[in-house]
Specification:
Order of helices and strands: HHEEHHHHHH
Largest sheet: 2 strands, antiparallel
Distance between the termini: 25 Å
Strand content: under 5%
Radius of gyration: 19 Å
Strand order of the largest sheet: 1-2
Number of strands: 2
Structural class: mainly alpha
Shape: elongated
Helix content: 55-70%
Length: about 230
Amino acid sequence: MDRDWIALILALALSSLLFSVFPQIDTAVSGAFYGAQGFIAANNPRIELMRSMAWWLSDAMFLLALAALIVALTSRRLVFGIGRWTATYMLTLFLLGPVLLSNRLLKGHWGRARPADVTDFGGAHQFTPFWLPSDQCLSNCSFISGEVSGTAVTAICMIVLRRTVERMAGRGVAQVWTATALILPVVVALQRITSGRHFLSDTVFAVLFMLVIALLLRPLLRKDDPA
C-alpha cells in the first residue's frame, strides 16, 4: 500500500471517529454562522453567484474531458494535450463521484436533513449524525455535499493536468493553477456551511470520498499518455 492510500485511510478513520464521538461539532460549526436573521450567507446574490461559478467550472472541466476523449479517439490531435487515458480518467471520476455516489446514491437515500431544516436552526426536522441513515429528508438531502463533490473532482482533474498547464503556459501559471485547485473545494465548502445548506461533515466526507474514487481509478492514468 502506497503512502497516498495510507494518508487517505488515516484521514477517513480520524474524520469518522471525530464526527462519530462528537457529532455536535456539526451543529456547533453551523451555529457559528447562524443568527437572528438566519444563516449569514443564505440568499445572498453574490454568494449564490460564486456557487454558480463553481458549478460552471465543474461543467466546463467535464466538457473539456469529453471533448478531449472524442478528439483523441477520432483523430491524432489532442485537446490541450489531454490524451485518451487522462480524459477517460476525468470523465469516469465525474460519473462515479458527483453523479453516482453523491447525487444518486447518498443524497437521494441517506435522509439527512440540511442545517437550515433542523430544529436547532428553526426548522422542523431532527439533526442526525453523518453515519446514521434517517427519514428526515426525502430527496436532495444533506449528506454528502454535491457542490463540494463536484469541486473536489474538478480540483483533482486540475492537479492531473498541472504538467500540461506548465508545458503550455509556464511554471508561474501552473503554480496559480495548482493553488486554485487546492483552494476551490475549501471556498465552496465554506459557502455551503455559511448558507445553512450543509454541515461540516457533509463537506469533509465529500472530499474524502472523491479522493477514494480518484485513487481507485488511478491505474487509468498511463505514463505514456501526453498529460
